[in-house]
Amino acid sequence: MTDPAARLGPDRVRLGVCCTLWWNDDFPAIDAGIPFGQAVSEMALAGFQGCSIGHKYPSDAAELKAALDLRGLRVSEPWTSTYFTVAKMRQKTVAAFEETLAHIKALGGTELVVAEFGASSHLLPVDVFANRPVFTNAQWENLTSGLEELGKIANSAGMKLSYHHHMGTGVMTRADVDRLMDSTDPDLVHLLLDTAHIAFAGDDPLELARAHADRIGHVHLKDVRPEVVSRVREEGLSFQEAVELGVFTVPGDGGIDFRPILEVLADAGYQGWLMVEAEQDPNKAVPLAYAKKARAYLADVLGW
User: Fold this and answer.
1) Mean pLDDT, all residues of the chain
2) Which of 50, 67, 75, 167 has the fewest C-beta atoms under 10 angstroms from its C-beta?
3) Residue 237 carries which DSSP code?
4) Cβ-count burial 142-173 (b if 16+ within 10 Å, e if not)
5) Number of domains within the chain
6) Distance between CA atoms of 41 and 26, rounded to whole angstroms?
7) What CATH number should be reported for the domain holding residue 224?
8) What is the span of the domain harbouring residue 140?
9) What's residue 4's pLDDT?
10) Phi, psi of 274, rounded to the nearest 5 degrees
11) What is the pLDDT of residues 30-62, one digit of tens each?
């Protein structure tokens, strides 16, 4: 493999940042009071081209697009939770997805991100490892068929669906991701590679990237602090407690080596978003400082 800078240039990838540096959408109490306008201005100031959507963003698509256009930003993705493994939730899940799709399309976005949160432990004040769901074969079938239905809807709208493996959910580990990829149509369901969530789960993000390089449709570049991961396991802490303790940070500030991961993406001809993310307490980790730190790290690795 060669330096990824030559093959992950601005003609192939776009660099974005998730709003979880500025506030937490899962746990709204983790907040330093930073308003939407300041957050997106700081994203642009740090040198990013796009951003995810968060709960402080204007709900009106025209208003939001104008605010982002003013700062030279594009929407990278929305988030839609799915509940295919929960009885009688398929219709509601599809309806919510279609609503999100319409909103993101109005903003000029082309990416859709989903994760199955049926029986997830990540929002509960419980041990995130011990209480995460293990799906039955029937639940796996409901999940994979539901995701393929969403993939068809996305494709028909000229958009792409990527699945986000996530701590505390039924698709958390490398084995879970392998099963999901093996059980879904590659033309309908892509993989969102989240480097930190898979490392937190106890698996190797580099090996996951190598195994499914041809399925990766979206990337969250997030780092972990290994000492916090160890504490969460040993003390049986919740996902919220892990976040508040600083389990996540930006690329280049934790225990993950991102260069070989980016080399794998380059070798696979990856095109799309590289999204910096770090679910941190903005009262402890100044968002703009960490956004600039991440952008400087990527500039060093990618050469731009």
Assistant:
1) 97
2) 67
3) -
4) bbbebbbbbbebbeeeebbbbbbbbbbbbbbb
5) 1
6) 22
7) 3.20.20.150
8) 4-302
9) 74
10) -110, 110
11) 999 999 999 999 999 999 999 999 999 999 999
